[in-house]
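Your task:
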Amino acid sequence: MVIYLESCRITIRVQPRASSDGVLGFLEDGTLRMRVTAPPVDGAANAAVCKVLSKALGVKHAAVRVTHGKTARRKIVQVTGLSEAEVRERLAG
């Protein structure tokens, strides 16, 4: 038996070295704005993005991973186990 989990990709604009961690909401182009306190050094900001986003979505840390933009502020993150509609619903509330 093969079971495929639903997943989606989200474009994120990250502000590293912020005063607090948080999800700020979606921009007009559909990009999610986030801020993390971690500096963009040795993958610390990427790890913080996954941690903050997984907590906000209520999924395990392993279900969220950065797939593109590991050294940029604009990243693409894959969320396994949720559809795009579920992600938007959970982040809106």
About this structure: The chain has one domain: 7-92. The two ends are 36 Å apart (CA to CA). The first strand starts at residue 7 and ends at 15. The mean pLDDT is 93.
